[in-house]
Specification:
The protein is an alpha+beta fold. Helices cover 46% and strands 25% of the residues. The protein has three domains: 114 residues, Beta Barrel (Elongation Factor Tu (Ef-tu), domain 3), CATH 2.40.30.170; 63 residues, OB fold (Dihydrolipoamide Acetyltransferase, E2P) (Beta Barrel); 115 residues. The protein has four helices and twelve strands; from the N terminus they run H-E-E-E-E-H-H-E-E-E-E-E-E-E-E-H.
Length: 362
Amino acid sequence: MRLRRRARIDTIQNEIRAQGRSWGRWIYLGLLALFGIWAFNLLVGDLIYFRAEGLVLRDRIVLATQYPAAINQLEVQEGSEVMRGQLVARVRSLSVEESLAKLYSSLVDGLNRTTQLKVRQRVIEATAPLSDQRYNEARAARIATEALRDQQLLTVGRRAEIVKTEIESAQARTEAEVERATISENLPELDNAVQATKQALGRLQDTYADGVMQSPADGVVGYLRVAKGSVVAPSDALMEIFTGQPYVLAYVREGALYDLQVDDPISIWMGFKRYFGRIERIYSVAGQLPKEFQNTFEPVDRARIVRIAFEPVGDYPPLFSKAKLSAAGWPPAWVKRLTQSLHEAVLSALAPTESKATGSER
């Protein structure tokens, strides 16, 4: 019989526990990875993939006057929808009314002067034959007196009267001829001056239009810079009317990896609402970012301007809304172009190698 050895009661056995999962380590590594991705996205994300900000705008028409004027009547407010030809304001300009009065006075003077010259021209043309006849008769009478003078049958006084009559008739005929020639030269210029005055008067009347300001297109009144009773100087804006379909004016950083082209699809985000659009135009100019996109303590930044047209939808976002833009579709259009360019570059690089290998085998 074999005796079993009993364990001592004062001996504590070590219990080996199963090694548990280190969740804390994985959470720490995950947070560290998220921080790295966030820092990468913050620093160079805009240069790796397309991401930009923009404003919703429409084509702008500025209503202004070419003359100083006072606002007598104002028919619209900011945000009012207007139709083409609708009365939006009525103004009055004393300077324009004074200019109209001067042009009218000048026109009347020119017409009177033209009328007088035409009447005088007709009179000269009508009396010219009589003037010529009078001169010819006076000249014939003087010639006839030459023989009588030799025979001493004519007194000196009578002969002097005949000579004086011939001189007066010659002088009158010459003055009439000179006056007719002068009228013929000046009358066309005077007619041209009258026509120019009429044209200037018509242009000023069309521009002034009795002080009526009408909307040149259908749209929405944006900025209203005046009120009833305001006085504006020439070229000062009265209001701005936004017309046409909305679009997004985006500001894109230069030197990025991606390459934008016209007709690329774009996602337009307004908060949680998404719109779709396409690049309509890429301007070859870098514009100053709006104040909404500028950082307070950084110098004024500039970025390339891109115009993006909305895809037709029933409800467009309001004007001047800030939008966040990104490339639509997967892969984006710029990625497809980049991949194709790399593929072509690889093929062009391998082509000389294959041609050399073929030549060595020959």
